[in-house]
Amino acid sequence: MNLNNDLQRHHQTLDALRELIPEFGPEAWEHPGQAGGWSPAQVYSHIALIANEFSFKHLDACLAGEGPAEGRKSLLGFFVLGTNVIRASRRIRVDFPPELLPSFPSPEEARRAMEGLLARAEATLAKVAAADPARRSKHFLLGWMNAAEWFRFAEIHHRHHLEGQLQRLLKDSRRGQGGLIARN
Fold this sequence. Notes:
This protein is mainly α. It has one domain (3-91, 100-179): dinb family like domain (Four Helix Bundle (Hemerythrin (Met), subunit A)), CATH 1.20.120. Helices cover 59% and strands 3% of the residues. The chain has six helices and two strands. Strand 1 (137-139) and strand 2 (143-145) form a beta hairpin. Helix 1 packs antiparallel against helix 5 (107-130), helix 1 runs parallel beside helix 6 and helix 3 (40-63) packs parallel to helix 5 (107-130).
């Protein structure tokens, strides 16, 4: 694993997420689009919540040596971390606990959240590089991952939503106001 490449991908993805925010007009920002589901605001909230309260939390547990020195990734884990991708078309349904349900941040709050994620990734890089690769924490689908794998996964998750949900919502918002098809 090349952590510098992973950090570069964090930069690229989080920059792209920040640059996309103004593409959603005020009406589209809180509208779920034609297919239903989350609005752009909720997707940005989800990205920040999962990074901070799930990926980086597990990464921090590995850094603290809290995880076991055993445990394997699942086959899906090997695939996702090996290819650096979760297919954008793949929809994964997860029942989130109330504290991980997305909210409706303003565009400015979403932009600051993406900047905060980048700052956190940059601040964590040296610690991840020095971490014991045997210390692991379990992802419910991908299996047992070490700090470097959690670092990589955080960016993969951001990009999954950028390339999937947010692109669909952007397409919807361009079809008509707030993601609604314009009516004559």
